[in-house]
Amino acid sequence: MNETEFLKEYDPTAFQRPSVAVDLVLLGIRDGWPAVLLVKRDQLPHVGRWALPGGFVGIDESLDAAAARVLREKAGMGEAHLEQLYTFGAVDRDPRMRIISVAYLALLTEQAFDAALGAMPALLPAAIQVPWAGETGGPVTVLSPEKQELTLAFDHAAILATAMLRLRGKLDYSDVAFALLPELFTLRQLQDVHEAVLGAALNKPAFRRRQLDKGWLAATGAYEVGAAFRPAELYRFQRH
Amino acid sequence: MNETEFLKEYDPTAFQRPSVAVDLVLLGIRDGWPAVLLVKRDQLPHVGRWALPGGFVGIDESLDAAAARVLREKAGMGEAHLEQLYTFGAVDRDPRMRIISVAYLALLTEQAFDAALGAMPALLPAAIQVPWAGETGGPVTVLSPEKQELTLAFDHAAILATAMLRLRGKLDYSDVAFALLPELFTLRQLQDVHEAVLGAALNKPAFRRRQLDKGWLAATGAYEVGAAFRPAELYRFQRH
DNA sequence: GTAATAGTGTCTGTGAGACAATATAAG
DNA sequence: CTTATATTGTCTCACAGACACTATTAC
């Protein structure tokens, strides 16, 4: 029996299968705080609760492609840093049926965040409060624009907490911070992003030194316009 | 319509579903090198190639439970550090059908590694060579006990590379190194594990200082026996 | 000039690498 | 005593935090 014959006889319906979905944590920085875009559930279960945008994975669609499709369809966006986060597979995480969810983290610039809100008015921008520090992680709080604490559907609070832990962990050794900033930015803006993600103030001279020493920043020679006082130089992210 | 009625009417067969499997990277340190336990495929596709032990996820089984079951059934083991690694979901990663694989990293002490080999003689202990350094990652090489380079089945080489990257990344801020060591160990053994994982020599006094300053080590007052020369003190892993 | 922020210089403390010195056990 | 490794001490260097100083722009 060669491989072609084998494949013909293989029975792909031999056992019951779970459904597989992707859920997206659409993350940006708004008003100095991390924020996430949520959709209101209009169906049971958890009807009326806020949830992460998601969708089922097509049978001929890779996980990354499914995440990119949900990003387009549910968030009206083409461009964003997208990375796989973790796969949530508790048996009872969805009461309808067995659904395994592969969570993705999408990082949005402030412009992309606002553009998504414009394209999809049903999206809610919710502020994220992270009460813990360090590598352990823990629960996070989600606040509506009216400062009401929201209870997320399913295990989406745990997914969001995982996203914040990942983002904090990668912040200073990877380039994720630049995914939250526009093409051109000042060092102050870069520091603001770091401080918002970490939830802590940073020392300015030390921050500048460390960022410049990394060699990931290219000075443009251009300066911000419209600043009330001395305008800062604009930098661009550029490896090495 | 309340939630119970809704669930009754929900059609769980509405669309085609992928299969979901778990694959385990059973990792230990042997002769100062990282090593992985492999199984030989006796079926098409990729018959005769070496693969990571794996199994399908049951419809009433969480991902973690499936990984623990595979650990028991395919590796004859009950105890090991087990953590989810990454989910591999390319459409064509398995020619039989669409299979999404949730990879797990299992860390074995040298005793557990040998016990698994004893319990499951079909397992092959293969040495892992990691040619890269730093956070980027890249391909790894797998060598049989006869020093022959092995080609792994499916995308298992990529899974193994992901495992090595994760292990290196977590080595000095987490407790993974202790999962590779017995209950009682010397500082030299701890350093050997770090050096094997990192593939680099470390400075002894600096290593000792850093480990002791972390506060994760409890001196036992006992010393190793049978050492050819001065015996080292035995330590135990203990948080804070 | 004043206000407010951008950007730089310098001191200090912490921690890692390098290297040497001391301690200890087997034979 | 010799050998080989465990364990400790010390020097130096790199780097981050703290803090003050200079630079620049709007008004």
Automatic annotation (TrEMBL), chains A, B:
Alphabetized SUPFAM superfamilies for the sequence: Nudix, Winged helix' DNA-binding domain
Keyword Hydrolase: yes
Domain of life according to the entry: Bacteria
NrtR DNA-binding winged helix domain span: 177-237
Any one GO MF annotation of this record: hydrolase activity
InterPro entries tied to this protein: NUDIX_hydrolase-like_dom_sf, NUDIX_hydrolase_dom, WH-like_DNA-bd_sf, WH_DNA-bd_sf, WHD_NrtR
Annotated ranges, domain Nudix hydrolase: 20-111
Pfam family, one: WHD_NrtR
Keywords: Hydrolase
Protein name as it appears in the record: NUDIX hydrolase
